[in-house]
Amino acid sequence: MLTGSFCSEFQTVTAGKYKRTLTPTKKVTDEDLAKSKEDIEQILKLFKAFVKDNRPSLDIDKVATGETWFGDDALEKGLCDELGTVDDVLCQFVDDGYNVYQVAYDPTVSDSPLAGLLPIGADNAGTKSSGLVKSMTRWVVGNIGSAVREEFANDFQSKSGSNVEERYMVKDPRDSSDNIKF
Fold first, then answer.
1. Euclidean distance between CA atoms 168 and 153, whole angstroms
2. Residue 151, φ and ψ in degrees, nearest 5
């Protein structure tokens, strides 16, 4: 049986007076709290200015309260223009004449002779292991959008008179936010 007390001591090395104002490894002072409050108020000020610039008709002081509004409440307060799903947006792009594509990468390890170039123990569970084939595939997939745009931009513009970005959209499968990139 162990008796006695154990104490851990934490030391933090920083540069600058306000580098660690609030941290679980040091006692918080009134000066730390005041500085943190000042920083948060500055962030709120910047956020409100950004929203005001992008939605001038919005009464920013009425909605920038720290509350969260969803759906109909957000629409009623002017925080969004309309309600819809990602599918609604994609269907509208198709209706407007855009070609909508989704590119996906399936890192399944195959039984092909090239699979031997992958490191031993490689799996398709998203591990950080890297092999020649895996690295090359990631590079190709990561650059396919810019390569396609570059390859077809001049030809497309000369034939259609419009820019390729106005016609084709790419959704990055690594981006889980459902953002559509042109």
1. 10
2. -65, -40
Question: Helices in the chain by DSSP H: which ranges?
Answer: 30-54, 60-63, 71-76, 86-95, 132-160
Q: Can you spell out the DSSP letters for 25-76? A: TSPPPHHHHHHHHHHHHHHHHHHHHHHHHH-TTS-HHHH-SS----HHHHHH
pLDDT tens for each residue of 130-182: 566 667 777 776 677 666 666 666 665 666 566 555 555 555 566 655 555 44
Give Cα separations from 166 to 117, 148, 157, 170 (angstroms). 40, 14, 10, 11
CA angle 7, 8, 12 (to 5 degrees): 150
Residue 72 is encoded by which pair of tokens? 């109909």
Interatomic CA distance for residues 79 and 72, integer angstroms? 10
**pLDDT tens digits along 38-85:** 999 999 999 999 999 999 999 999 999 889 999 999 999 999 999 999
159: left (phi over 0), alpha (psi -120 to 50) or beta: alpha
Beta bridge partners of 99: 168
Q: Please give the Cα distance from 171 to 77 (Å, whole number).
A: 30
CA–CA gap between residue 130 and residue 97 (Å, rounded)? 40
